[in-house]
Amino acid sequence: MDLPEEVLAYIFSFLPMRDRYNAFTVCKAWSRSMIYSSVWKYTEVRCEGGVDILQTFSAYLPLITKLRLCVGLEDPANRSSALCALQQAVAKGEGQLRALCVDCTGNARLFDAGQDLLKGLVDTLAYRPLLTVLDLRGVPFTLNDNFVRSVAKSCPKLHGLFINNPSLVCGVTTETMREVLNLCPGIIALGVFHASLSPAVIGDLLLPGRPSLQQLELRCERSLKYTPPLGDEIWVELRYRHPNLWVELVLDHTLPELRVPLVLLPSIPVRHLRLLTWTLLLDEINLVGSSYANTLETLELQTPASRELNSALVTLATQCVNLKEVHCYCVVSQEVITAFRENCCLLQRYTLKTHKEPHPWTCTILK
């Protein structure tokens, strides 16, 4: 059965770049369907096909509105291919690119700071594309002040900026964050290191002329050891000014244990909480149940197993009844699993194991 080209175009829009290339070479009808802009609205480029595939589709890359770049770090040629794709999509500022996500895979070379990739991003974005979303959570290199300022100056239309990446240290100061908020006044979704916040940054978010902040993701790591803690009263003000705000907190293993209670403040509207500390979390779990019961939807724990932990999780399941996901990467009792399944009616996915399994642990999907 011959399908209309419009239907083929819709089908091909779900394919990554290599599969589109394969489809392009099948027949003339499939090749013609590639000219439809709907094929390119969302495109994932994995940089695994080399420059040849990019050259084949170079005329269509400026049609991309949402681009996800997956960059392999082992081979420098992959970075060159990724930057080539981005340059063609930006088309010197004349492309339709509105959202860019960069994900890096594999292990970087020793002492590799990723300067070639970061400089290529800055140089390409200097053409001032009309980006509204920039997601760099998948870039493992430290993003410093100069890089973030350059991006903000080149993309003043940003509504979403995510620089809470898994680098070892926070490279963005509070002064830079204030400059970013001034350069990009339309930001309503923000992902940063917690150490990049300060009362002054929160004060800028409270200004009456700013749009309502919807999403705030905070990565909490060792840098918080050197920054003054934010008081709970600041979060009360922020929550009052932005009533639809939800927060994701990620606490990694480098965060000093004494700093954890200063991060988990009761007035934060926490929707997603990831406690990846590998420390005893009994007090924290009790605090979560009492403070975030009405807002929490996702909980992830990396902590040692114990009978006390089982008891705390059973109690938590009766408090945080709006949970949609819970993942605990240590062995728990069957009572814990039963408690979450019976009390959390919205539960969709969970990782709760009564015995150890080979890594990675599989997730149970309910809905």
UniProtKB/TrEMBL annotation:
SUPFAM superfamilies: F-box domain. It comes from the Eukaryota. InterPro entries: F-box-like_dom_sf, F-box_dom, LRR_dom_sf. Residues 1-43 form the F-box domain. The keyword Cell membrane does not apply. Keywords: Ubl conjugation pathway. Pfam families: F-box-like. Directly interacts with SKP1 and CUL1. Substrate-recognition component of the SCF (SKP1-CUL1-F-box protein)-type E3 ubiquitin ligase complex. This is F-box/LRR-repeat protein 8. It comes from Chanos chanos.
